[in-house]
């Protein structure tokens, strides 16, 4: 589709919107100055990496374990030591099962030593045998905490594994730790009244994102080789971006959401939610997704080679000026241009084309409307543990005197949720139609052999609590959830503020393999995950 059919960025902009954007920009600049004054220079330093095992991908570790170059026990103990080193500073891990994991690692080593299976058979049947894995505190792991950051669930433990984790266990992975989330997983900073706040490994004054923020942080600090996340508005991709790792939101309804809390209120909401893989290395995503997708893996054709020289690359640098959404940072715009330059040099100018889809300006409104359903329940029901609606106004009064067990942002989100358009209203139908039109446009644009490269977020990791001043910035990821497309967050090194840069790569339904292939290409070109200090 030619650029001119899509690029409407030069259309006239109403004066009121221009003035509003200008004022919002001034406020953003003012608040950024205030937060810099509050937090000062960069936060505390992480302990350096002294164990080379921590620098390996999960795929590499699995290969070395089954080939007896490393033992599962050895690998597990390395990551447990690393968690104990970094967690007092970062607060990313909130529960552990080290003793049970150790027994399972011993069993994995004994299976390998028994000779019952060849290394080739293990690679086929148990591709991650003996590799430690983590997940967030809203994806159930039998016997571990299952709180979703909600105080009312502070003592709840999972009775069984989530289906995605059960499949990873069947493939040989060993759960050993649980990671922090935002309250009920509906905010993009990981902080709650059960476990507290998680801090960014690159700058402890910055956020780790949410709701898979503890997971992203744990991996970026080299305290876990890989893990599972979940994403209904960007909860895999934003933490992957803020923590400089890879994260993939699969195509809708490919990976089971069974074992996730809170559960969606409707079948359509269930299609927006996606459990997906997170890792420091792009090569881990494909085999993880193959396992997690279970019987639906065939839909994705992940083993089919991707010929990148035949892929069409579209890119869009901003959302076009969404209301109450921050402008894209200069570092991120420069990163996009570096990607464009690399792709054009390697694959040719004709294959890389700029687009500007004007509907992206309404991403937040479209997401909020499409999240509505006919259950009559909203975020205040989730804060009530899916058992009752909390009295949001009363809880806010209690919060002001330190008596509420909810976070300020959780209560604010519930109040904002109550103000959104209602399911079945004319505005609701209008915005659902907008989503459908945008979905059709993107399907036509992407076909079965193209990707869209788009910012994961308009700014690099903000300071703690700063998201309150820019709550709608999640719209860059949220819009992809309600469209249902797969998207991979790809790290691009560190920017001028010393925190990660990145983009997301979007493809058509069930064309996840294109996202993953482009992620691997960008990792080769730009280095991927930036390791913490290493002293071997």
Explain this structure.
The chain crosses the membrane at residues 21-39. Pfam families: Amidase. There is one protein chain. It is globular, with a radius of gyration of 22 Å. Helix content is 39%, strand content 12%. An eleven-stranded mixed beta sheet has the order 1-3-2-6-8-7-12-13-11-9-10, with helices on both faces. Strands 4-5 form a two-stranded antiparallel sheet. It has helices spanning 15-39, 58-66, 72-90, 98-114, 119-125, 163-170, 213-220, 237-243, 267-272, 285-292, 330-347, 363-370, 379-383, 392-400, 408-418, 426-446, 475-483, 512-526, and strands at residues 93-96, 132-136, 174-179, 191-192, 196-197, 226-231, 246-249, 274-279, 312-315, 352-354, 450-454, 487-494, 500-506. It has one domain: Amidase signature (AS) enzymes (Alpha-Beta Complex), CATH 3.90.1300.10. With 536 residues, the protein is of the alpha/beta class. It starts with 14 loop residues before the first helix and ends in a 10-residue tail after the last helix.
Task: List its salient traits.
18 helices; 11-stranded mixed β-sheet; Amidase_dom; globular; 536 residues; Amidase signature (AS) enzymes; alpha/beta
Shape: globular
Output the CATH homologous superfamily: Amidase signature (AS) domain
- Quick check: average pLDDT? 95
**How are the strands ordered across the major sheet?**
1-3-2-6-8-7-12-13-11-9-10
Total tally of structural domains: 1
CATH class, anyone? Alpha Beta
State the separation between the terminal residues, measured CA to CA: 51 Å
Residue share in helices? 25-40%
Q: Structural class from helices and strands?
A: alpha/beta
* Count of distinct strands: 13
Proportion of residues in β-strands: 5-15%
- Major sheet size, sense and barrel closure: 11 strands, mixed
What's the tally of helices? 18
Q: What is the CATH topology classification name?
A: Amidase signature (AS) enzymes
Q: Which spans of ≥5 residues are poorly predicted at pLDDT below 50?
A: 1-5
The appropriate CATH architecture is Alpha-Beta Complex
- Radius of gyration equals 22 Å
Domain Amidase: 75-516
Protein name: CG8839
Keywords: Membrane, Transmembrane, Transmembrane helix
Pfam families: Amidase
